[in-house]
Amino acid sequence: MRVTSADVARESGVSRTTVSYVLNEKPGVVITDATRRRVLDAANRLGYTPSAAARALRSGRSDLVLCVVPDWTIGPLLDTLIDHVTMSLAQHGLSVLVHIDRGSRPLAELWRAVTPCAVLGLSPFDAADARAMARAGIAVIGSALDEDPHPETFVVPQQAIGRLQVEHLVSRGHRAVAYAAPADDRLAAFADRRLAGVRHECARLGLPAPRLARVDLTVESAVAAVRAWREAGEPVTAVAAYNDEVALAVLAGAAAEGLDVPGDLAVIGVDDIPVARLAVPALTTVWQAIDAQADYLAGSVLAALDPSLEPPARPDDVFHVLERAST
């Protein structure tokens, strides 16, 4: 059971008003040293912690930033992004509460309960939610996976990743391209957009439409995909994978089928996770500027809270291809 100021008042034998004056160090109120000490000792004995919501009401501002993450899997890159944002904001006295939105609780119910000074969304907010938070005096910072008409929204265009993958594979002489999609439906927001980029670039360059397969992170799943690609009318010679983990599964499937990479099948991933460079052969991948993205989001939060600060400059190099032996 939570210890309240009323408990401290009973324990110390003074009124709740006196407890409030002491604990909040209210200026202009005369409290004897003996009374002050009695209240503080009682609070310590009971383990009293002031309510964050009450503290926010008194000060006019919370020190809490609510970070809303859609129902995505938390992989290495997203974990790094959240960690970097958290550390950056902590240097300015702000704490981050991460909420993974699984649809079980309305966002309005959450922000009203935790009284944040800002809400950072890793995907666009519903317009009604954004308006309600703004009316409540909460700074709203959003990001998107597609081009967004709002200039304050940070965009990491996922289609451009797929286009980069095909551009690189074509530069290596390939025409028959496949796309290895993830098996986890929670990644569809990213995977569908990257696939759209692959399809767009293949069409632009006059290539056959990419052959699609969902690849689970097992050798058996990857072998089935590789066999289907190689048995096509025009055998696939290059694979754009959703991310490095899926690409590593494809490498395992190619090895199980006795294929040479990149001689028989070239493979490119996304993310540049640490094990990508340890693969055999080392994995070509699309590197993402996660630290720069995190700096931008943290800077946007700070600028939204302090109008005297300049909004951060958008990072220019958001992603590029790191060519290794797999292509």
Automatic annotation (TrEMBL):
Coiled coil: none
Keyword Lipid metabolism: no
Domain HTH lacI-type: 3-59
UniProt-listed SUPFAM superfamilies: lambda repressor-like DNA-binding domains, Periplasmic binding protein-like I
GO molecular-function terms, A-Z: DNA-binding transcription factor activity; transcription cis-regulatory region binding
Keywords, ordered alphabetically: DNA-binding, Transcription, Transcription regulation
Entry-linked PANTHER family: LACI-RELATED TRANSCRIPTIONAL REPRESSOR, LACTOSE OPERON REPRESSOR
Protein name (record): LacI family transcriptional regulator
